[in-house]
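Q: Start with the shorter request: fold the first protein.
A: Done. Sequence, then structure:
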Amino acid sequence: MHVQTLLAMTTLVTVLMAGGGARAVAAGANYQPLVGQEGKDVIWVPNPAAMVEKMLDMAAVTAQDFVIDLGSGDGRNVIGAAGRGARARGVEFNPELVEHSRRRAAAAGVGGRVEFVEGDMFAADVSEASVLALFLLPDNLRKLMPKFVDMKPGSRIVSNTYEIPGWPSDKSETVRGDCAAFCIVFLYVVPAKVAGVWRTVDGDITFEQDYQRLSGSYVYNGITLPIENARMNGTEIRFAVNGVEYSGRVDGDVMQGEAKGRRTVAWRATRVRTQ
């Protein structure tokens, strides 16, 4: 699928360039962007309406969210999020697209819940976002990785077509119907950072972390036991030790929850060392 979508983009750009290159039509209030027009880091290929809705559905966007789109183009992801009651911001390098997006938001009646700013997506602050809705190339996503992993745990990232390099998605879905290219959405839930040593009343747990995947060991009353089936989902943690299923929630340097074995008991651990 990735090869097909990349070929589709290449074909699209080739056709546009054969006609003399993609250029935006007119200026000011009459400005209309053209599919394939060049940008600073990517060409502009808009999300179909069905893709916008699928991305927002997978991110479970509600009125409590703050959605950011990096490289927001004509603003359709931002406007779609605002239509669900969310606050939203688009970061776009092209000033004409920024003004065009503002006009589209006003026409859609959501101008009061959105903002469009002119800027470089690699310099943008995403710390306030609970959702990122993106349509960027793998190299762009790779460069943005430090921002992604530092987002608040539980934040959601949805990416059209392209996976974040090295980070396995939590979920993927395909847009059905008449979607011909750029039809897959990947969902990532930013995990809490738990790598290190955590102390319980019975011993120390050592976690090694690869995004949402965990491994490690539990030194339980002096006996070292492997951690199995360990995984993060935002701030939620699950793992098994010697047949006992642990589930809980991470809050800073404390994690606590229930351990289910022959009986169910509460458990709690505090961080004593970060890896």
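Q: Next, the second protein, separately.
A: Sequence, then structure:
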Amino acid sequence: MQPDYKLRQLAHARLRLLKDAERLGNVSEACRRHGVSRKAFYKWKARYDGTIESLMDRSRRPHSHPQQLTHEEHKLIDRVARKHKRKGLYWLHWVLRTYHGFTRSVGGLYKALKRLGFYAFRKPRRRRRYRRYERPHPGANVQIDVKYLPQIRGKKEYQFTAIDEHSRLRHADIYEDLTPQNAVRFLRDALDFFQRHQIRVLQVQTDHGVEFTYAMFPHVTVEHPFERELRKESIARKLTPIGKPHLQGKVERSHRIDEDEFHAIRFFRTSHARKRAFKAHITHYNHQRPHGSLNWRSPVQHLRAWQDNQCVTYA
């Protein structure tokens, strides 16, 4: 819909058309001068009632639609959306479709949420489109990254995360220091974790953090402990280019899930309590939480389905 001042400008132009036709006594000549058809002239002449508002464009939105959402569906959407405030659009659609018999499309759900006030208007920004990719099999590439956690009584802690790009299976743990030694400890635990799920890790991908590499310190000539451990395990090493965080997109996305579903909504008085609850959160993520990118299956379900289809068991 155009702004009100433009609608009024168009209305005044139509009024001039009507007055010129009356002054000239020739409808065809007036329409030719204004560049409109005779049909349009008679349309506005029939609508004109002496006020400029009668010549303004009106909304063409139908008064009703046979497929519009019912009042009960709006109530259901409002109740479920308030219960899952931090969930995304596709997650809500999956919950409504799976547990509440919702049959509408994602677009219909989005418009209903807008009507209910869940989405405030904001100016769209141009976003760069990145090509999404998938690894051919589990273990082809494992992304590892670190997340800074909220402090507990002024004490800093760090979350190390390793995620398999194919199955989205994750291993994560919390450490008190951001050191190469803790990175090596985490790598060993992650390799044991993936081995228990019959995944042989072929490549590990990280950024240029000092806990993973000395690449940013050319004056350091000794081998980094993390890279030495990878060499001992015969695992390929991959460093993401500087300024390309989207190449670590899967582990970064999992960190956002942790923030929305755990760190931002849970309060802990001690580090021990947070570590214990975080282990339960990771177990839920791997075994129960459905993922839209995995066709609404958990990482373990997706991994088992792939292994059954390929009839391959990794040592």
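Q: Describe the second briefly.
A: The chain has three domains: 4-55, 71-115, 142-310. The chain has a mean pLDDT of 89.
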